Amino acid sequence: MAVLPIVTVGSRGDELLRRPGQRVRDFGPELHALLDDMLETLREAPGVGLAAPQVGVAQRVAVIEYPADDEDPESPLLLFEIINPEIIKAKGSEEGQEGCLSMPGLAADVSRATQVVVRAQNRHGEEVRIKAYDWLARIFQHEIDHLLGVLMTDRADQVYRMQQTESGEWEAVPIENTLRAPTPSSST
């Protein structure tokens, strides 16, 4: 396994973050190695989700690792490897603040569904359905957006720059000119 470089907005190759990923058809050793490397990269970052375009791979692949009980930091981590995912059902709506490994130093207020059902394939090509609620539902939506070429700032109600205070705490300072860019499906 290897830690892969994360593509950030403004860096070389960042145009990949704005393009929909290609559907995966080969579930062999190359995909398995990519999933393993993405998980190691996610853990090293550290983060809770990582999409293949964020590591320079134009495929519909993402990994998510999240505590089974988000109120207990010692709870076991759940690992989701999703290939060719799509949200087939969404309910509720809640605004929450998100960060992104491809946009270090930024946070955004984004409205997301509070419940989703995701249909995807696992690393062996078998179909899986995942029901996710609350923060985990938000993570799935964020990562699936990456696979569609959509960034959190495209959906943001407000964007913030994260700054460290004199006391060492982090605070979100609103950015007046949000970083919204046209979504790939917008016509100009």
Description:
The chain is an alpha+beta fold and 188 residues long. The protein has a single domain (14-174), classed as Peptide Deformylase (Alpha-Beta Complex). Helix content is 18%, strand content 35%. It has a five-stranded antiparallel β-sheet. The chain is globular. The termini are far apart.
Question: Could you list some keywords that capture this structure?
Answer:
188 residues; globular; 3 helices; 5-stranded antiparallel β-sheet; alpha+beta; single chain; 4-stranded antiparallel β-sheet; disordered C terminus
Write the layout of secondary structure elements.
Elements: H1 29-44, E1 49-51, E2 61-67, E3 77-91, E4 94-99, E5 106-112, E6 115-121, E7 127-133, H2 134-147, H3 152-155, E8 156-164, E9 170-174
Antiparallel strand pairs: 1-2, 2-3, 3-6, 4-5, 5-8, 6-7, 8-9
